[in-house]
Structures are given as structure tokens and as C-alpha cells.
Design goal:
With 388 residues, this protein is an alpha+beta fold. Among the domains are: 8-90, no CATH class; 97-169, GMP Synthetase, Chain A, domain 3, CATH 3.30.300; 189-234, no CATH class; 248-306, no CATH class. 32% of the residues lie in helices and 18% in strands. The protein has helices at 66-75, 92-118, 150-160, 171-178, 189-192, 202-207, 214-217, 232-239, 284-295, 339-354, 363-381; strands spanning 20-25, 30-35, 47-51, 56-64, 86-89, 124-130, 136-142, 163-168, 248-250, 255-262, 267-272, 280-283. Strands 2-1-4-3-5 form a 5-stranded antiparallel beta sheet. A hairpin with a 4-residue loop joins strand 10 and strand 11 (267-272). Helix 2 crosses helix 3 (150-160). The chain is extended. The termini are far apart. Mean pLDDT is 81; it is low at 346-350. InterPro entries: PSP1-like, PSP1_C. This is Cell fate regulator YaaT (PSP1 superfamily). Residues 331-346, 367-388 have a biased composition (Basic residues). Residues 327-388 are annotated as: Disordered. Residues 84-169 form the PSP1 C-terminal domain.
Length: 388
Amino acid sequence: MSTFDWFSHLGIDDSYTTDIVEVSFKDGASKDFYHAPPALGVFTGDYVAVETKNGYNVGCITLSGELVLLQMKKKNVKQAKVTESVLRKANTRDLEKMHEARQLEYPALVKSRAIARTNHVNMKVTDVEYQGDCRKATIYYTSDERVDFRELVRQFSHQLRVKIEMRQIGPRQESGRLGGIGSCGRELCCSTWLSDFQSVNTAAARYQNIAINQGKLSGQCGRLKCCLNYELDTYMEALEAFPKKADKLRTEAGLGILIKTDIFKGLMYYTYRENRGLLFPIPVDKVHEILALNREDKKPADLQTFQAVTEVKDDFEYEDVTGAVELPAEKRRRKGKTKGRGRKRTSTASRESKDTTPQPRAEGKSKSRNKRSNNRRRRAKKKPGGDA
């Protein structure tokens, strides 16, 4: 909820054109307008103590001068409704009291949620904000139905030992207070700079040719994203050049049906009802010509004569780098069927690689082997019971 002062670098001292300043509390979670007399000498960025109905609160001045009047006009706040004023510039004790109040908020949030669950109340406690002097706590909650919290307020005040104010907020305000990271990768707009929430419907997505996907179009609050309205005016202005009733075009070749529209290129894609395989991109001015002929009960020959001329892009020529770049040869490893066999093969291979010298063959051993084989053959030829 921070605000940038666009006049700061110009050296224009417009702080006293009005004595109304905007003060934010709890890192911009809530803001309000107060009178700041020039005698106090407070400026943008100073911490001040402001008066409330129950004691005082401590906040930071975020806007002063002409920017406050523009912000009040944007929020539809009249100067006559601003009745409270700034008491003084916050001293050391005020800042210490404010930090003590911030330390009490998380335990109070846990207690309030436990009390609401114990009483079986259909509500979600979103946030707890303590006043700067720790005399009052505001509990923000969301609920889809009306909640009778008279008994809850008694239990809250008994447990927290402060005055309790219950304030119901919507899902968008809840996301703004809690904060987070959106699908774009940046902080949520509602928790940084967005000050008012406008209604968003699916028509904004249709005008921008966005597929109606509830999961992708919904934000963290469960509602449609606020950023769908950011570029809607540009699309609406571009659509003014397109014809209103141009879903069908009559030609001699057949009836043309509108398939899609490219808003920024100014093209409307048509196809024949009888032959859906053909697609003709036709500029907007040509579509107006065809519609004018149809209103005069005339039909052009076909849609192909009106389609836009597509630019032929030059083909990129790639340099032949065969032989210029040499890649290292891949080393193939023999994989065994089992771990044991693989280890055995690698061990034998390592032995062979280590002992590469050829060893002489023993002649005596080879002669004895030949004699044994000859004796076996002779025994096999002899018949059992025959003469030796």
C-alpha cells in the first residue's frame, strides 16, 4: 500500500496547500485522513500520533499536499468528513509502544481463532490489529453468512484484556491484508498499490480473447484477477474499428464463418461452412466492404481475393560446419548380466592389460596331452570282451 511521491524530485514545497495528510497503520494495511496543523512540522515519512475515539494510534504519513486531495477525490472522501487530527510527532516511547502492540498481534490471532472454533462459529479470523497504545484490538474476519458475535466479543475481550472491535471484510480485502506472490511472480497488487477494488467479470476475459479457465483466471482470493481490467480499455478502444455483426459473410463460393479475431493485427479469420480446412485472414476494411456488398444483396466471388497478403520471411542459411567441430568418441562399456560376472570380466581384463608380454609354450605338456588323447581313442575302438 505504499505511495510514490511524484513531486519529490521537483523541489516543490506544496505541503501547506492543505493541512490534511494521509496516515497508514501497520505497514499500509489500513489508512485514514487527518488534519495536521503546520505548527507541528510533520512531513511525508514521519511517524505521528493521531487521536482516536479510544486513546491514540501511531502511524506513518504516506501522503501530504496536493496528492492528498487527489487521493480523497479518488476515494470519494469529502474534507468536511475529516474530523480527527494529528496530536504530535511520535516520540521514542510512542514507537516502543507501537512495537509492543505488533508483538501481541500474532498470539492474539491464535487465541481468537481457537475461540471461534470452540464456539463452532462459521467464520475465519483473518488478522488482528492492535491500536498504537494497546488499548483496543480490531479483529478482521470473513464469513459467507451473518455471524452473531455478541458472545464472541465477550470471550475475546476476556482473553485479550482489551476493547474489541469486529470488522467483516471480503475475500479481496483479505488477500490485501495477508499479501503474497501472484502468478506473475510479483507481489499482489491489492497488498502493494491497489487502493480500491473494482468488479471483474468474465466479459473482460472474452473481450481480450482469453480462454475461460476458472483456475488460471482466479487469484489467491478465489475471485477473478484484478489485472484483467488493466488492459481492457485498450482492447475496447481497438474493437471499435471492428464491425459489430460480422459472424457470417455471403460469397459465391459459400458462406464464410468467423473463426477468430486478431485485435492488434486488425485481422478476422474466416472459413467456409462447407470446407473447414481453409482459413482466410481478412483485414477489417475488407470485411466492411464485403458487408456493404451483402447489404446490397451482392456476393463477392470468394474470400481468397480479400485475404491479407502475408509477408514471406527470408529463410535463414546455416553454415556447414562439418569437419570444423570434432566431438570425442564415446567409450562403450561392456555390461555384464550380473554384478559378479561384471566384476570378474573387469578383473581378467585388467590382468591381461597388466601382463602383455607373450609367454613361451611348454613343449612337454603339449606332448603328454596328445598321448592321453590317443590312448582314449584306442580304448574306445576296443570291443568289450575282445582280445587285447
